[in-house]
Write a structure and sequence with these properties.
The chain has about 120 residues and is an all-alpha fold. The chain has helices at about 20-40, 45-100. The longest helix is centred in the middle third of the chain and has 53 residues, at about 45-100.
Length: about 120
Amino acid sequence: MNVTSASAAPVGSASSGSGGGDIVRLQKRVQELTNELKAVASSDMEAKAKIAKSKLLQAMIQMLQQQIASIQQQAQQAQALQQQKAADAAQKTAPAANAAGAPTARKPAGSLGGMVDTYA
């Protein structure tokens, strides 16, 4: 039985700032492994060797897909954090603009009589 092992490409840290590049590289590796899996299916290897190699390739493909999903999730979290910081910064500057002379909304009085306009 002849089973060759395909090695996974080393994966860089998602926090390195090159998440997009990592994803592209991982997707290329997934495509390579998928092509290799197709080649195994049509090869003239022994049945046990085909099964073993197919399982190995499928596990490697799944691992790479999980890494891609993890990088994408980290990128989404970083984007959400950045948007939250921008919203907080905008909210901090908004009250300063109101204090600088922008008209504010009139707050209604606590009783019904305080909310009625009277004309004399």
